[in-house]
Design brief:
Elements (H helix, E strand, L loop, with lengths): L13 E5 L16 H14 L4 E5 L16 H11 L3 E4 L5 H9 L5 E4 L7 H4 L2 H8 L4 E4 L22 E3 L1 H15 L5 E5 L8 H8 L4 E4 L4 H7 L14 H13 L3 E3 L3 E5 L8 E5 L8 E5 L1 H12 L3 E5 L12 H15 L3 E4 L2 H9 L8 E2 L3 H8 L5 H4 L4
Parallel strand pairs: 1-2, 1-5, 2-4, 3-4, 5-6, 7-8, 7-13, 8-9, 13-14, 14-15
Antiparallel strand pairs: 10-11, 10-12
Helix pairs in contact: 1-2, 8-9, 10-11
Bound molecules: adenosine monophosphate.
Length: 396
Amino acid sequence: MIRSIEQINVHNRRILTRVDFNVPQDESGKITDDTRIRASIPTIKSIIDRGGIAVLMSHLGRPKGKVNPKYTLAPVAQALAELLGSTVHFASDCIGPNASSIVDQAKGGDVVLLENLRFHDGEEANDAAFVDALAQLGDAYCNDAFGTAHRAHASTEGVAHRFSDACAGLLLLREVEYLGTALANPKRPLVAVLGGSKISGKIDVITALMSKCDTILVGGGMMFTFYRAQGLEVGSSLVEADKIDLARALLEKADEMNVSLILPTDALVAREFSNDAQHHVSPVDEIAEGWMGLDIGPASIDTFTSVIQNAGTVVWNGPMGVFEFSNFAHGTRAIAEAMASATSTGAITIIGGGDSAAAISQFGLASNVTHVSTGGGASLEFLEGKTLPGVAALDR
Ligand code: AMP
């Protein structure tokens, strides 16, 4: 059983809390998107409003086990203080005397942020001595960082085992509930929408979803490898030559399992990989040499939209085209709109992180779907049915 932070007695106790403050920054270190900081606030408030001490720890970027001022969490401490409207005590190291003294001086209701965990190589190595040093800073443990829950690092996995009171934060619980429960017992028909550049990296999720879904819609660059598997020519579209056999096997498997795997019937093809490239709609079996598919076409948009609107549950991972180019964002936008519309008529709609999450916020529709996962890799692994070490370590 995994307990929620709300079930833990926090009063005057130090709650060592793993959050995801891995925020994007510009050259000058300015935070360009504070979504992740905002997302952690309900859990932090649950601790401090009940008189607990929130001892927060996170990674930022990839400093590779060395102190690097470029990756300091100091700007995050400031942003968090502004969002909370209260002081955030910042420790210049995540372990050792400075961290201990700041945590020791904290009183119920205080917030402490420890410096970047990845300034120590013990974090990613899940090193026992580093785990010990972190564990000294808390009386109970809470994990609210879903984005790193698929990694067995010191702060996500090792340290959880040092506390009898280990629990999930509200953000992590929401992820587990939507990605887990909704798929374990879905409202049917269950539809998966898969896109993105490549099949590789998504093989396991396609296979896992095949045993659960009624329909799988495939778009994005990966569709062209499926066409090659069907013997079609695809011009200069993205193809993973070494995955053609695998694509064929996936198509056969879908047939065997009675899953309807639907590929687009038309594509928006361009002369070159750029937003301004000359382009037109082409049936997929007529893509001429020298043209590359960068989006799904209007007939496919209609088909996909209607499948989504008739679904009970929809899970989406991966854009339908090169949505970073406005001229090739139509398919991805249409999926986002169809998901929003399906949600309004009672469907459960889940965005599985990464680029699809970026796309849905770009279109201003993030609050019109049931759940947008905060974890890219973690949400894919969860959908594959894998046990996430950071979640498993909370089970008591
Ligand atoms: P992934 O990281 O595999 O989920 O892929 C996401 C990327 O796929 C996005 O940056 C899209 O621009 C890219 N993408 C989607 N459709 C295509 C396409 N038809 N050709 C090339 N890249 C694509």
